[in-house]
Write a structure and sequence with these properties.
The chain has 751 residues and is an alpha+beta fold. It folds into four domains: 2-78 and 110-152 and 168-295, Heat Shock Protein 90; 306-437, Ribosomal Protein S5, domain 2 (2-Layer Sandwich), CATH 3.30.230; 448-475 and 613-747, no CATH class; 500-603, Immunoglobulins (Immunoglobulin-like). The protein has 19 helices and 26 strands. It is globular and about 95 Å long. The termini are far apart.
Length: 751
């Protein structure tokens, strides 16, 4: 049997596995259904993404390491989260890898060696063999059926120091291949007089009898003599205590590419699905005779590594009876292809990641950034992480699905979206960055001809909006370049502090059941605001709302977060008092009045909210323009619409190949002909781009329709715009002579 083990430990292809099964012999093997139930296909096949199955295996491996350390520590009680456990057992501050400032820290090296994920050649490039190896607690042979080969088990539900509990379990990974090798050796001996043995089993899919069985099922190999996995005496030098799970010829889908390929490799899979892991781990690629090793510390490394980051912030907020922490980062625009950089950290369409114990549970779309936050110039640069480690159990139940592939469609998700939008809306730095990036694109004044064109375009758009019962309108007033926001002077710390002042204007108008913030300035050290004994916030009366428990200070300027109650009514008034309490010193207080007002969307006033008339701006841009460069436009690109709080901007490419052909024809006439042709093209393409942007999936589809990912819709829009460009240029060619003699000035009529 030792010879069999030598072959087993180096088996990476289906043929090698079937040879091992044949050598053991059918007369020595008992096949048991996974989960001890033959009808296990539906449970194991519940997932739709192979990455989720691999992530479950990694989570189990990390838990095995934590379980081993818990034993080493004497099975201590009182650890209510894996983060508090890793802080105590491994010396990681707050259980956050991002708190480790150096990638060369010995903690990173020591811990990353305990869990390894490796890709091997399987005989088919698109389906590598995937191995997850841990140096954790290991398994006794009788434990296989209760843990790693169980379905819907409850062995982790009372172990708060472990990551797992909400997922379907590692067995979902079995769905993506036909053979899986499992080898394990316990770290602790049940009987000190006996030597720990290595146990192994092989999982396969049984196709069944097509005339008798409705479907296949998964089963694993046992020693017919003992009814347990096969056991062997193997020295620790050959197989160190812990567990190895090897998925032979695993269908990883898009993640089977080069290990570090953006959004298509193991590096992205590991970082995106374990956005903020409890401990670091190692990933390796040993295909094609190479060896490539990388350490995974999670995408929360954005907190530590600043080369791609322009700005970051974070806040912990009350949510129901628990808490959530929001982190947000803005990537910079430096270097090559800055708009593609987000792909190293998150999905372009879903840059808002929700995690529990570091593992991704779901995402929110970039529509929140573009449409609700109105930060279109930060789209593809803004990443948000919503950490739910300390969320209340009822909210977790309503929020998380067992596949971890998407969130449940419940009211809790909508409340979490609302909290995210409200919180980020309070960050003026985001609005400043969005405005600054927008201004980079505008360097020339509108000409009289272009102003006339804008007016004609606005008339067409308003006619369209009225006929479609939208009720909104656009104007053509010119918006000059805004002045850059002045950086506030840094306030030096004083101890004890000498002043504390609320800077938000009083009264502060707020809405019922909505988060809001109060801003202040002080010379107190930020540490004062992290402790209840040195800082307090009050709302009087308490029926209006509550303090979230979070206040942050940076360079002397602070922000405190609050939330009004759902029961608060329009017209209710109250007072907020912020109280700074230096130990042994006189308290410093500042107050502000608040008033509950009607939400704009509830007022029915056509002059507010969504019915506000935005300014419209159109701009021809060439290949030297930063917008053209950053969006990787080419001769096929047509136009793009960007809407923010102030205006609708339509960028139109003057490099488009269809436009270039008719411009070449106009050049044979004179410069005036060229300008008339370009203006006619600009007007029609801008109108078409505006209408196409208005008819986005959110406005056209009902709640019952299947959602279209934003990336897919962008491709549809690009195709439609290319068709429109060909059509418009074809019409211009047909009416070429009449167009070039038009006088645009005759159209210069005020709207």
């Amino acid at each position: 049997m030792n010879e069999i083990f030598k072959e087993l430990i180096t088996a990476y292809t289906p043929k090698e596995v079937t040879n091992i099964i044949r050598k053991i012999g059918a007369n020595k093997i008992l096949w048991e259904s996974v989960g001890k139930r033959r009808n296990n296909l539906a449970t194991i096949n519940i997932g739709a993404d192979p990455a989720a199955g691999v992530t479950e295996r990694i989570t189990n491996a990390i838990d095995a390491v934590l379980e081993k350390e818990w034993k080493n520590q004497g099975e201590p009680e009182g650890f209510r989260s894996p983060r508090s456990a890793t802080q105590n057992w491994f010396g990681i501050e707050d259980g956050k890898i991002s708190k480790i400032k150096s990638a060369r820290d010995k903690k990173i090296d020591d811990l990353s060696d305990k869990v390894q994920v490796t890709l091997y050649d399987s005989g088919k490039d698109s389906k590598p063999t995937v191995e997850i190896r841990d140096k954790g607690i290991g398994l006794e042979p009788e434990d296989f059926s209760k843990t790693i080969l169980d379905l819907n088990g409850s062995n982790k539900i009372g172990k708060l120091y472990l990551m797992g509990a909400f997922g379907q379990g590692g067995s979902t990974a079995l769905a993506w291949n036909n053979y899986t090798i499992i080898i394990s050796k316990p770290h602790f001996k049940k009987d000190e007089r006996k030597k720990s043995k290595v146990s192994f089993s092989i999982v396969r899919i049984n196709p069944g009898d097509v005339d008798k069985d409705k479907h296949e099922w998964y089963e694993y190999m046992l020693d017919k003599t003992t009814g347990q996995p096969f056991t062997l005496d193997i020295d620790d030098k050959i197989f160190e205590p812990g567990t190895l799970v090897r998925h032979i010829l695993m269908d990883l889908g898009k993640y089977s590419g080069s290990m570090t390929a953006p959004q298509r490799g193991l590096w992205y899979l590991a970082h995106n699905y374990l956005f903020d892991p409890i401990i670091p781990f190692t990933i390796s690629d040993r295909r094609k005779g190479k060896t490539d090793n990388r350490t995974v510390t999670g995408n929360n490394r954005l907190l530590t590594y600043t080369e791609n980051r322009e700005y970051h912030n974070q806040v912990t907020l009350t949510f129901k009876t628990g808490k959530v922490t929001l982190y947000w980062w803005v990537l910079n625009t430096l270097g090559k292809d800055p708009r593609e950089r987000i792909k190293h950290y998150a999905s372009v369409s879903n840059p808002i990641i929700i995690t529990h114990n570091g593992q991704k549970q779901g995402t929110l779309g970039n529509g929140l950034i573009k449409n609700e936050l109105k930060l279109p110039y930060l789209d593809r640069y803004l990443i948000v992480h919503i950490e739910t480690d300390y969320l209340d159990n009822d909210s977790k139940r309503q929020l998380f699905s067992s596949t971890r592939e998407s969130l449940k469609e419940t009211s809790i998700v909508e409340e979490l979206k609302k909290l995210t939008v409200d919180t980020l809306n309070e960050d003026n730095k985001l609005k400043q960055l969005d405005k600054e990036r927008k201004q980079r694109y505008f360097t020339k004044d509108d000409t009289q001809v272009l102003d006339s064109l804008k007016k004609r375009l606005a008339r067409r758009i308003n006619t369209y909006l009225q006929s479609s019962d939208n009720g909104t309108s656009v104007t053509t007033s010119t918006v000059g370049e805004s002045s850059p926001t002045k950086k506030l002077p840094e306030i030096p710390f004083e101890d004890p502090p000498t002043f504390f002042e609320i800077t938000t204007n009083s009264p502060k108008e707020v809405y019922a059941n909505k988060s809001f913030s109060i801003k202040f300035k002080t010379d107190a050290h930020p540490n004062y605001f992290a402790k209840a004994e040195t800082f307090a916030a009050f709302i009087d009366p308490q029926s209006i709302g509550s303090y979230s428990g979070t206040a942050r200070v940076n360079n002397g300027y602070g922000i405190a977060y609050f939330k009004t109650n759902e029961e608060a009514e329009v017209g209710d008034k109250g007072e907020i008092t912020l109280d700074l309490r230096p130990i042994g010193q006189k308290s410093l207080s500042s107050s502000i009045e608040i008033e509950i007002v009607e939400r704009p969307e509830d007022s029915g006033n056509d002059d507010k909210g969504k019915n506000k008339s935005p300014n419209i701006r159109v701009d021809f841009i060439g290949e030297e323009h930063p917008f053209f460069e950053e969006n990787n436009w080419n001769e096929n690109s047509v136009a793009s619409v960007v809407s923010d709080q102030d205006e609708v901007v339509i960028y139109v490419s003057e490099e488009n190949k269809n436009l270039q052909k008719i411009v070449e024809r106009a050049q044979r006439k004179n410069d005036s002909a060229v300008q008339n042709i370009k203006n006619k093209y600009l007007e029609h393409i801008s109108f078409h781009a505006f209408v196409l942007d208005k008819n986005n999936p959110e406005s056209v589809l009902s709640k019952d329709d299947e959602e279209i990912p934003s990336e897919s819709y962008e491709k549809i829009k690009e195709s439609e715009l290319r068709n429109a460009s060909e059509t418009v240029c074809g019409m211009i060619n047909d009416f070429f002579e009449s167009i070039i003699i038009e006088s645009v000035e005759l159209e210069n009529v005020e709207i």
